[in-house]
Amino acid sequence: MSRIVVSPHNLSTKTGIKILKNGGNAVDAAISTNIVQGVVAPETCGIGGDLFSLIWIDGENTPYCLDSSGYAGSNVDILKLSSQESIPLDHPMSVTVPGAVKGWFDMHEQFGKLSIDEIFKHAIEICDKGFEVSTELHHSLSLHKDTLIKQESGAELFPDGKTPEIGEIIKRTLLGKTLKRLSIDGPEYFYTGLVAKKISESLNNVVTENDLRSFESKWIKPLSIDVYGKTGWVTPPHTQSYLTLGTLKIYELLDDGSDNIDLHTLIESYRAIASERDDITYDYAENIDQFIGLNLGYLKNLSNQIHKDKTSIFAKPEKLGGGTAYMCTKDKDGNAVSLIQSNYYGVGSTIGVGDYGFFLHNRGAGFNLLQNHPNSLKPGRKPLHTLSPTMWSVDGNLDMVIGTRGGRYQPQLLSHFILKILKDENIENAMMSPRWNIDEFGKETVSEINIEPGLDKKITDELVNKGHKVNQLAELQNSYGPISAIVKTKDSWKATHDPRVDTASSIID
C-alpha cells in the first residue's frame, strides 16, 4: 500500500515521507510534518498553538479523536473587556493554554513507532541550517514586523533588521534549541518550569503556571453521519467540524438524483445549518450528548426551510446573548492521520515567549463577550474552534482523509470539494474547481457569495436570479485553502495538494 503525505509546505511533506521511509507510521509522520510546518510557516501554526487529530488504525472501524486544545486562563476577566465588541487579537486574554505540544506527545505515546528524537530531528536541522522564505511568510512578516522585531523570539526572523525577501534563507536557532529540549525532556519542559513561567509572564499572568501544568489533551469520541454511502467523521464541538457533514447531509436530503451539483442548494444547505453555529457550538465538556447539530431530525427540519427556487433568510430563535495548517498522512499498513494545527490569526497573538523562539496563538478570540452565553470568555472554558478536519470510511474501511485551513470558512470550502468526490468527480478536477465563500452567515443574513473565476456563467446567472448577490473574483484565492486530500479509488490511493498555495505539496511513495 502507498505511503502518502500532503501538507501546506514542501519541506513539511518531504519530512513526513522521510519518516515513513525510515520505518515510521502515519502518526510519526503527521507529528514530524506538523513540527516542520511550524518552523517554516509560523504564519500557519507552531508550538504556541492548538491541535486536533483523527487517527485511523487499520483493522478498526472507528477513528480515534484527539482534542489537544486549551482553555482560558484562570485570570481572564470578561468585565475588563466590557468596552470591546470582541476580544482584541493581540490581547493576553486572546491566548488560551497552547495544546499542540501535549498533543504530539500523547499521539506518539498511544500510537508512535519511531523515537521522539527521530521525529523532532528534521525540524531542528531546518531551524539550524535555515530555509527559504515563502511568499506567504514574507507577507506575514511584513505585516507584523513592527511588533515581532522588538521581541527576542522574533528578531532573528528579520536578518539585518529587514523583512526577508521571498526566497531568502533565514534560520530559527532559538526555536531549534526549544525543540531540542522538548525532544529530550518531553512536554514537561514546555508546561512546567522556566518555559511555563515565561509563557505566564508574557501574558501578564492571565494564564497561570498552574493552568499550564494542569493541562491535558483528551481522547474523545468523534461525531459521524452517513452521506452518499460513506461515513464522515469529524471532531465534535467546541469545533465547527459538524458543519461540513451537516451541509452535505442536508444537500443529500434535497438531492434530485442529478450527477451535477446544484450550487444554490449547496449554499443554502450551508447557510441553514451555519445560521445556528454560534448558538450551539461551544464547549459542552461532559455534556456532548446534548449537542443536536448532526441529529437527523434537526437536519431534516433545516432542509424543509430551504427553497429550491430562491434564497432564504434563516430566522432562528432569539439570540443568546487564519493562520492554520492541515496535513494528512497514510502509511503502507493502512493507518492514517487527519491533523489540523493552528495559531488562529496568522502568527497568532504576536506575543512571543522570551528567547524560546515561538509565539502564542489567539484562539481565545473565538470566545464572545456576551454575559451568560455558553461561549463567553470564562476561566477554564474552551472557545469555539473553527478547525474542521475530516476522515471518511466505507463499510468500516478507510476511504478519504480531507481537510483545509480557512478559519470559519473551512466547512464552506470542504463541503463543495467533498461533494464533488461523493459525486464521483476525480480528485484533480475537484481540487481545481472554483470555490466560493460567504462572509456573513449568521441569523437574518442575506446570501452574498464570493466566487473564484471559472464557474459557468449560466450557474452564476442562476444564483443571481434566485436572489444571491454574487461577487466575481478575478483570481484563485490562496485563503480558500490549501485543501489537502487522500482518496481511495477503485485501483489505488490518490493524493493531491492545492495549487492555490505555492508551497503546498503531496508525495506518494
Structural features, described:
By secondary structure, this protein is an alpha+beta fold. It has two domains: about 5-220 and about 325-365, no CATH class; about 220-320 and about 385-509, 4-Layer Sandwich (Glutamine Phosphoribosylpyrophosphate, subunit 1, domain 1). About 35% of the residues lie in helices and about 20% in strands. The protein has 17 helices and 20 strands. The protein has helices spanning about 10-20, 25-40, 100-110, 115-130, 135-150, 150-155, 175-185, 190, 195-200, 210-215, 240-255, 265-275, 275-280, 295-305, 410-420, 425-430, 455-465, and strands at about 5, 50-55, 65-70, 130, 170, 220, 225, 230-235, 325-330, 335-345, 350, 360, 390-395, 395-405, 435-440, 450, 470, 485-490, 495, 505-509. The strands form five sheets. Strands 6-3-2-10-9-1-20 form a seven-stranded antiparallel β-sheet, covered by helices on one side. A six-stranded antiparallel β-sheet has the order 7-8-13-14-18-19. Strand 13 (about 390-395) and strand 14 form a beta hairpin. Helix 4 (about 115-130) runs antiparallel to helix 7 (about 175-185). The longest helix is centred in the first third of the chain and has 15 residues, at about 25-40. It is globular. About 55% of the residues are buried. Mean pLDDT is about 95; it is low at about 315-320.
